[in-house]
Design brief:
mainly beta; seven-stranded mixed beta sheet; 11 strands
Length: about 130
């Protein structure tokens, strides 16, 4: 059974950092593009970042470029999202998802371009 599990969320002050993890079971992450999405209350789910399977190319939404870094550890079958210089507007539930078809071609979304999802982890940026 294919499964993704996010972890690493929490409460952090503005300017702080968090590292989210997306661990896979039942399949090898390295074969798929893996994206990170987030959804704030009352808003649509938006694509944040993606890492491709073919060459490890990375993609970022403009709102996080220069602050977030996506990476993959194939030995641990895990994808990470390092988030620095966090802002209150980054507050959301963060999800990772596997892209089996488009190789991060839809890293900004829509969400239905991704086939498998984790349950999400809450990130709250507040003083």
């Amino acid at each position: 059974q294919l499964r993704l599990v996010e972890s690493g969320g929490g409460l952090v002050q503005p300017g702080g950092s968090l590292r989210l993890s997306c661990a896979a079971s039942g399949f090898a992450l390295r074969h798929y593009g893996i994206g990170w999405f987030r959804q704030a209350p009352g808003k649509e789910r938006e694509g944040v970042s993606c890492i491709s399977s073919s060459d490890g190319s990375t993609y970022y939404a403009d709102s996080v470029k220069g602050r977030f870094t996506i990476s993959r550890d194939n030995a641990k079958n895990t994808v990470f999202l390092q988030m620095n210089s966090l802002k209150p507007k980054d507050t959301a539930v963060y999800y990772c998802a596997a892209d089996t078809r488009f190789e991060c071609g839809y890293y900004r979304g829509p969400a239905d371009a991704y086939d498998y999802w984790g349950q999400g982890t809450q990130v709250t940026v507040s003083s």
